[in-house]
């Protein structure tokens, strides 16, 4: 997990959880461990639902934190629009009518693409893709697309998917970013810090966001359209006279997905005026969080990337609309699609991520601290593990230290309990035979193993990967509280 994080952060600086978010969460963890006897009752640090997010995530008293990082990103996509008669070179914002239907850029093919149900599922990340058809489930709503020439694959996890030119050097350098949006940044102050950003802007009101956007951002080619067969609003954005105009780095905020993913827009890689351009679609998802697609370049000489992106996106089609994989849950009883369906009681608000394969993690303030839910894992070579003893053997083969402790009963079913410890960075288990990452043993953890009569071999885990003496007691108390009220249910 730590390796995956490191690789992800190497590609996109500023698109993960913010430093402020991580720092605040760490402070909360330290505060909790000051009195471990109360850890099980803690209402503040504890995430629930399905999937693991990176260390770049935030929440301000649930709603506050989300929208704090929400203000963390705004979008820039568009064409250069320099004001000719202005001595101070200020750029005017162009706001075409909402019902504009013409554009200099093709936004949908003459014959709409159809969702390719037989396209192979793309599970790996950070590599290269050859020409062919692909399916992506990472965003909750699946989609398929076709490549007619090789491209680079960047992120493909946690409701975040990025394609780029093979020669791309980082974020906004000839890439296409797909993400779910829980909120947009504050359109009046897109360069504001997280602390000053307030609650941001509703994710499902991209039109209003564009209407209110500061004139420091140049807007062009705005239109209502369709994208992948769904209603969307499209606009091209470009930095105007922002504080970082002509400089390096990501200084303009676009939007966030519950602070786990934050999209920032780069000023460009040269000192030429307004080198970066961004083309953005915000795609409706019925009553679910919308989806954003952002095409970016950071040099004027790379404008042909927009043609390449148009070719790729013209082949894109969505499947059935699904929920945002990153969920913000209130305290109380929740039902989750973990291990076939469970119900449990949460003592405090929390985040969770839904994995396309049905696995999940409850994250405790940091990527390296979480409770996990796994169904029918495989060993590192893809062999089926049928019994708890098979699982223990697979763990020991990976050089983990495994110690059995007293068993318990979970919802009427016996669960064997094991303490595990590992210094290995290698994958220990596979979640599916096509899974490129799998499950890694924590530096310190506890595993509850259930041989369920209907669902097979199930694993519930409490995991800590760093600062284990401080963190493990807290994540253990969190997981034990979840298990205490856990029921196996059939979801409707």
Summarize the structure in words.
- There is one protein chain.
- The chain is of the alpha+beta class.
- The protein folds into two domains: 2-62 and 330-488, no CATH class; 69-318, Protein Transport Mog1p, Chain A, CATH 3.40.1000.
- 16% of the residues lie in helices and 33% in strands.
- The protein has helices spanning 2-11, 19-33, 63-70, 206-212, 304-313, 388-397, 468-484, and strands at residues 127-129, 132-136, 143-147, 151-157, 160-164, 175-180, 183-184, 201-202, 217-227, 230-239, 250-257, 261-266, 277-283, 291-297, 317-318, 326-329, 332-336, 342-346, 350-354, 360-366, 369-375, 378-379, 401-410, 413-421, 429-430, 444-452, 456-464, 487-488.
- The strands form six sheets. Strands 1-4-5-6-14-13-10-9 form an eight-stranded antiparallel beta sheet, sandwiched between helices. An eight-stranded antiparallel beta sheet has the order 16-19-20-21-27-26-24-23.
- Helix 2 packs across helix 7 (468-484).
- The two termini are 32 Å apart.
- 48% of the residues are buried.
- Mean pLDDT is 76; it is low at 1-26, 28-109 and 245-249.
């Amino acid at each position: 997990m730590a390796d995956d994080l490191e690789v992800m952060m190497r590609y996109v600086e500023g698109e993960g959880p913010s430093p402020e978010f991580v720092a605040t969460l760490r402070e909360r963890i330290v505060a909790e461990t000051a009195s471990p006897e109360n850890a099980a009752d803690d209402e503040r640090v504890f995430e629930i639902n399905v999937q693991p997010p990176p260390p770049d995530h935030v929440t301000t008293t649930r709603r506050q934190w989300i929208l704090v990082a929400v203000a963390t990103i705004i979008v820039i996509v568009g064409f250069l629009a320099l004001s000719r008669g202005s001595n101070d070179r200020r750029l005017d914002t162009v706001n075409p009518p909402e019902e504009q239907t013409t554009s200099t850029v093709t936004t949908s093919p003459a014959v709409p693409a159809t969702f390719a149900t037989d396209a192979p599922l793309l599970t790996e990340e950070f590599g290269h893709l050859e020409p062919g058809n692909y399916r992506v489930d990472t965003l909750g709503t699946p989609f398929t697309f076709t490549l007619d020439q090789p491209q680079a694959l960047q992120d493909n996890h946690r409701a975040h998917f990025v394609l780029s030119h093979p020669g791309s050097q980082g974020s906004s350098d000839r890439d296409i970013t797909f993400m779910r949006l829980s909120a947009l940044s504050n359109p009046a102050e897109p360069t504001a810090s997280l602390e000053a950003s307030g609650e941001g802007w509703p994710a499902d009101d991209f039109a209003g966001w564009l209407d209110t956007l500061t004139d420091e951002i140049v807007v062009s080619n705005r239109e209502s359209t369709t994208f992948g067969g769904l209603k969307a609003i499209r606009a091209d954005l470009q930095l105007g006279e922002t504080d970082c105009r002509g400089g390096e780095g990501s200084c303009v905020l676009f939007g966030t997905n519950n602070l786990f993913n934050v999209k920032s827009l780069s000023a460009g890689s040269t000192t030429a005026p307004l080198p970066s351009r961004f083309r953005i679609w915000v795609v409706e998802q019925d009553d679910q969080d919308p989806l954003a697609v952002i095409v970016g370049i950071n040099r004027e000489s790379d404008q042909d990337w927009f043609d390449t992106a148009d070719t790729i996106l013209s082949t894109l089609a969505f499947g059935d609309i699904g929920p945002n994989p990153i969920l913000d849950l209130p305290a109380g009883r929740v039902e989750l699609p973990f291990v076939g369906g469970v119900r449990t009681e949460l003592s405090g608000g929390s985040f969770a991520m839904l994995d396309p394969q049905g696995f999940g993690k409850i994250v405790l303030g940091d990527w390296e601290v979480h409770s996990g839910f796994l169904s029918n894992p495989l060993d590192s070579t893809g062999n089926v593990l049928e019994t708890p003893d098979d699982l223990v053997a697979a763990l020991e083969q990976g050089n983990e230290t495994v110690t059995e402790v007293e068993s318990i009963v979970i919802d009427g079913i016996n669960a064997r309990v094991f303490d595990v410890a590992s210094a290995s960075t290698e994958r220990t288990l596979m979640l599916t035979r096509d899974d490129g990452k799998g499950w890694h043993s924590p530096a310190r953890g506890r595993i509850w193993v259930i041989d369920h009569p209907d669902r097979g071999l199930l694993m519930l885990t409490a995991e800590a990967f760093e600062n284990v003496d401080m963190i493990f007691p807290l994540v253990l108390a969190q997981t034990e509280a979840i298990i205490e009220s856990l029921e196996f249910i059939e979801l409707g």
